[in-house]
Write a structure and sequence with these properties.
Elements (H helix, E strand, L loop, with lengths): L1 H31 L3 H23 L4 H21 L9 H19 L6 H17 L1 H8 L5 H17 L5 H23 L4 H25 L5 H27 L1
Helix pairs in contact: 1-2, 1-7, 1-10, 2-3, 2-5, 2-6, 2-10, 3-4, 3-5, 3-6, 4-5, 5-10, 6-10, 7-8, 7-9, 7-10, 8-9, 9-10
């Protein structure tokens, strides 16, 4: 009977994650098509949401301190991506990732030996720092060669993958389905909104679908209802990761 009571809560959590992710994508595209400052504000807010909610998702101690350690490097990376001269828009991002991870280790040292979940906190928060900083790719992508349509194609592919993740089917079915649909959405969006070649758009869609399917699997394996900060973080963390993914695929396959 307990499992029956928990099932609707978990289902609501998965829907919340998907809708938060779609809202984040919409905010990013709105920033892309308005001003650079607006996009930076959105990227900083996403980094803050990822940082605040990630310790809640991991269910680890020292949530406030680790939230700051995760969020601040991501916000700084987004601001740097908007201000540094090109073409190295993400040159400062690895430095902020390194600083964030060093801060995670410092926090764990200050906590002292014998504290609960030190290993989980260290490894999990290092991943959180990485995800927070990857959101700077959206800002870099908007500055790179001025082709905003690539980011629109990226957002559409990610949105299709997120919508597929809302289906209440097993991960073994939803994951390949999301990859296929995102792989189809990329070329279709490229044909409609830009002159991006079909093959790079399809490759990008499949990769995005795989990334978002992995995040869905993480939420499933957690096996417990999510509170609001954790749901916000899990909804926006994959959106953040897609930003740098779009930037580097744009540089390698399209530009």
């Amino acid at each position: 009977m307990t499992a029956d009571l928990q099932a609707p809560v978990r289902s609501l959590g998965s829907w919340t994650i998907g809708l938060v992710g779609i809202a984040g994508l919409a905010a990013i595209i709105a920033g892309v098509y308005t001003t650079r400052e607006a996009l930076v504000v959105v990227a900083v807010l996403i980094a803050a949401a990822v940082g605040i909610g990630w310790p809640h998702f991991l269910r680890i101690p020292a949530k406030k301190t680790l939230a700051a350690v995760i969020a601040l490097p991501g916000a700084a990376a987004a601001i740097a991506a908007a201000t540094v001269p090109g073409p190295g828009f993400l040159d400062w991002t690895p430095a902020f990732i390194a600083l964030g991870m060093m801060a995670v280790f410092v926090v764990q040292l200050i906590r002292g030996t014998g504290q609960a979940q030190r290993l989980e906190s260290t490894l999990g928060c290092c991943v959180g720092v990485l995800l927070s900083c990857l959101g700077s790719g959206w800002v870099a992508g908007a500055r790179f060669n001025g082709v905003r349509e690539m980011l629109l194609v990226a957002a559409i592919s990610a949105a299709v993958a997120l919508l597929t993740g809302l289906i209440r089917w097993p991960d073994s079915v939803v994951a390949p389905l999301g990859m296929v649909l995102a792989g189809l959405a990329g070329p279709l969006a490229g044909l409609v909104f830009s002159d991006i070649a079909v093959l790079p758009a399809a490759i990008f869609g499949v990769v995005v679908g795989a990334v978002l399917a992995s995040f869905r699997r993480m939420a499933t394996l957690r096996g417990a209802p999510l509170n609001v900060p954790a749901a916000l973080s899990m909804g926006l963390a994959p959106v953040s990761a897609v930003g740098s993914l779009a930037y580097f695929i744009d540089k390698l396959l399209i530009y």
